[in-house]
Structure formats: C-alpha cells, structure tokens
Amino acid sequence: MLASPEAARWDRTAALGRQGLIAGLDIGTTKVTCFIARPEPPREAGGPRLRVVGIGHQLSRGLSGGQVVNSVDAEDSIRRAVGAAERMAGTLISRVWLTVSTATLQSRTVRAGLVIGERDLVEGDVRRILQMARSQVMAPDTAILHTVPVRYAVDGSVGVRDPQGMFAGELRAEVNIVSIAQTALRNLMLCVERCHLEIAGLVAAPYASAISALVEDEAELGALLVEMGGGSTGIAMMAEGRLRHVGVVPVGGQHVTHDIAHGLSTSREVAERLKTLCGSALVSPSDDRDMISVPRLGEDDRESAIPVPRSLLTGIIRPRIEETLELVRDHIAKLGPGRATPASLVLTGGACQLTGVKELAERILGRQVRIGRPGGLSGLAEATGGPGFTAAAGLVAFPLYAPFEASRGDGIQGTWSRLNPFGRMNKWLRASVW
Fold first, then answer.
1. What share of the chain is helix, strand, coil (3-state, %, to 5)?
2. What do you get for the CA distance between the two ends of the chain, in Å?
3. Which of 201, 234, 235, 307 is paired with 226 by a 20 to 30 Å CA distance?
4. In angstroms, rounded to a whole number, what is the distance separating the alpha carbons of residues 156 and 255?
C-alpha cells in the first residue's frame, strides 16, 4: 500500500467513523465487496496501517458497466455483502466509502495561480487555489471526485509538494481533476442510501486499486495500474507519488464470459465456469488434444453435453483479451509521449487472473508486468487477498492516504445534496435511532 503523502497531517478523528472504523463498499458488475477496517497506530515510516475486521462479498446483481439496471437486485446484493462484513466485525456500520467506475470517468490536468502578497502560506491558500482549479472543470452535470495537486510552484521555486508554511508572493499549482457525470451516480447512490448507509465519499475505482496495490517506489518512479474488472477496465497512472491520470475502457471480464456463452451455445453460468477452470489467453501445444465438456444451452442433462477441444475456448478468449489490452495501449498513447512510458505496469482485478493475461499484457503494452494484490492490510484471508480485492482494500485506506482530500470531499457532498433532498433527514434519523 502506498505511504500517505500527507501522513504528517493524519487526523484520526476526521478519518474514522463513530466506531473508530472505516468501511469501503466496492460495487462492481460481477461482485459487491465490503471491507471494514480498523487503523493501527502510525509507524515511524509509511504512515498508519489497517487491520481488516470484517469482509463480505456477494455476486453482483442489478448492475452493468458500473450503473444500476435493476435497483431491487442491486440493493439486495449490497445488503448481503454489508451484512456479512458486519457479522464478521461484530458491529453495525452507518457510513461507507464507495467506488465509482463508469465510462464517464474523466481526468484533466489544469493550472491555477494565486497572488499571496509576501507572507507565509497557510492551509486556506492551498484550499483556495485548488478551488480555482476545480472551477475550470465544473459543469451542471459534472461531479468532481478528486482534486489531486500534482505539483506547486512558489515564486521561482518549482516542484514544491507541500507549500504550507513557505514564504511566498505568488502560488501556482498544477492539478489533476477527476470528474464523472452526475447522471451516472444518481441511481447507484440512491441504492446505497436505501440500504441505510451514509456515503462518506466516492473514490474512482482504479485510484483505489492503485493506493492498495502499488508500492511507494512504483508510485514515485511512475506506474500504470490496469484494473481488469468485470464490466470495464480501469486505468490509473501514478508519478512522483501522485495520481496523474484516471480512465476507463468499457470492456471487461464479463465480455469474455458473454463471448464464450455465445460461441459455445451454452449458458452464462457454464461459460463463467469454463473461463475460470479451463480458460487461457495463450495457446498451448496440447489444446487441440485436450477436450472439455460443454452442456448445451437449455439442456441440464450432463449426457447431452458435447466435447470440444480446449483450443476452441482459447480461440474465443484470446481476441477479447487482446482487444482490451490494445484499447488500454491506445488510451495511454493519447496522453502524449511524456506519460505514455511508465516505469512499471501492474495488473489487478479479477479478470487478470486468467491464465496468459500477464504474458499477453507484456507483449501488447511493452512492459514487464506484475500482478498486484492488496498491500498494507492485515487480517485478510487468502481468498480475499487476491487482485480482485484491491479496490475494496484501497477504499478503506483512502481516508488515511489522502486525508486532506477526504476531509474536503470535493464536490460530492454538494452533489448528493442536490440529487437527494432527503439525505439530511435520513442522516438525522440514523444518528437519533442508531
């Protein structure tokens, strides 16, 4: 897990809920995951660590591509995942951090300047210049998720990371603004509220995964994290310890499952099982000889299953994985030569566990690849310590990794107040009754 760039200003009271816990809810197209964690005292280096005390995950229903398509099913999945985590933790939670990953996720770098007047810089100056940066991106249907200062310049000194306390006549900032269309948030946030949960804040899913899966040197030297989820593939680029870009490619592991179901004329359930147990993105010399049994669509009798060579399954899987990685490559290339060559490449997400994906990514993206897993957390079982759980792990770490951003909340609270006029009443009822 990344060390906090603001660890010296870590405010335990502001970061935690009433029970001294942080809860994260990662709502994906294929699964819903809830982590409940308790911070441990900060160490001399690396900032605070977290112990996971509650975990719950369920198959996701009612969602597609990060958006709600059936609110009843979506709410049921959320309640089941949160309930399982609460039972394990032995406590109820009232507020959660929530991941967001839809095709409307955008990242834009802007610049702003502020005349200080020959005095020491204070926190209010930093907040003001970041607000100036946000104002360049604000639009009626846009919600700002993250305002990440890439670097500051104080008078003639460039590359300043934290200007507070410095004497200055002028402050300038280069800021990465991550935004999303409000329409993409409305139904998802309503589903969470109907489960009697207050939304503490929203985090772009690839950013959450980067916080959890990258190590400090990777984030400093430059790293590209590719989160291969079920409904989409997220992209997060880190450099000099800061988030430099976030994006989404609208293709994921679920598209592979659909291709298998269509190509082999079988059910989606069988297709998912074949992908997990027998699937590969690389051709093996024995694929033509190895046979797999495929039940036909609409027939439950095992005797009606037909044998097909494993090469046929590989021939369905490989083109979709290649397409996904090529879309990632093209997305990064559009950022320009300065950011198209990160020093390291890390894959996360459930789809990256498919045999051969790592090797295919190295060939298409031209970088040595490693598979990322949740870091900086204790209390994780082997089943929940894999690459499919990095976003949930990064969620519970976010208030500690970026306390300044988390306490500010950017435009999310204001956005949610406009979308849900009854939010304050619900919050008062929870505080009074619970």
1. 40, 30, 30
2. 33
3. 201
4. 51
DSSP code at position 62: S
Question: Is residue 118 a contact partner of residue 169, using CB atoms and an 8 Å limit?
Answer: yes
Query: Which tops the pLDDT comparison, 422 or 62?
Result: 62
44-49 long-range contacts (CB < 8 A, ≥24 apart) are 45/3, 46/3, 46/7, 46/216, 46/376, 47/3, 47/4, 47/7, 47/10, 47/400, 47/401, 48/4, 48/7, 48/10, 48/12, 48/400, 49/1, 49/376, 49/377, 49/378
Pairing of strands 22-27, 95-100: parallel
The Cα–Cα gap between 385 and 233 comes to 20
Answer for the pair 177, 137: CB distance below 8 angstroms, yes or no: yes
Distance of alpha carbon 341 from alpha carbon 144, whole angstroms: 27
Nearest to 133 by CA among 157, 117, 109: 109
- Confidence band, pLDDT 50/70/90 cuts, at residue 46: low
* Residue 103 pLDDT exceeds 50: yes
pLDDT at 428 over 60: no
Q: Is the distance from CB of 295 to CB of 267 less than 8 angstroms?
A: yes
Side chain identity at residue 237, one-letter code: M
In this structure, the chain runs to a length of 434
Q: Rounded distance, CA 106 to CA 104, Å?
A: 6
Taken in order of first residue, the domains within the chain and their CATH numbers are: 106-181 (3.30.1490.110)
Q: Are 213 and 371 in contact (CB under 8 A)?
A: no
Based on C-alpha coordinates, what's the Rg of the chain? 22
Closest CA to 327 of 229, 263, 230, 247: 247
Which contacts (CB < 8 Å, 24+ apart) does range 321-324 have? 321/256, 321/281, 321/354, 321/356, 321/357, 321/360, 322/281, 322/360, 322/364, 323/251, 324/228, 324/233, 324/249, 324/251, 324/252, 324/255
The residue type at 4: S
What are φ and ψ of residue 5, in 5° steps?
A: -70, -10
pTM, two decimals, is 0.88
